[in-house]
UniProtKB/TrEMBL annotation:
Organism per entry: Aromatoleum aromaticum (strain DSM 19018 / LMG 30748 / EbN1)
The organism's place on the tree of life at top rank: Bacteria
Name under which the protein is recorded: Uncharacterized protein
Amino acid sequence: MPPQPPTPPPADSRGTRAALLFALTAERLSVFYEHGQWPTAAQGASLVAEWLNRSGRSLPLADRRLLSELSDEFARQIASSLSREAGLQTVHEMMEALDPKYESDLARSLMAECVKWLDGA
């Protein structure tokens, strides 16, 4: 019998919410650098619902909207502090870091910032 994959933590756990904030920030930056537009808060909340649904989890709409709004603020802060080239490199690093096997000091630093954003919300 093949081993069962580990059960993901609850959607409302601090770690899951930080990971969602990180992933949504990366997605927002990617869209911004590729298309010159920022996804709306509703689009971000819908994306979080899609991601959670894949693992049979969910969050209330108010929580998804909060994550969307926080990711928008964080993404804009990142974009405003970097050149386009540095921003593109940051997005690439963040997208790579969505794979838990990928090691990155930058991603760890940005994840720590996500935790701070959540703690401040």
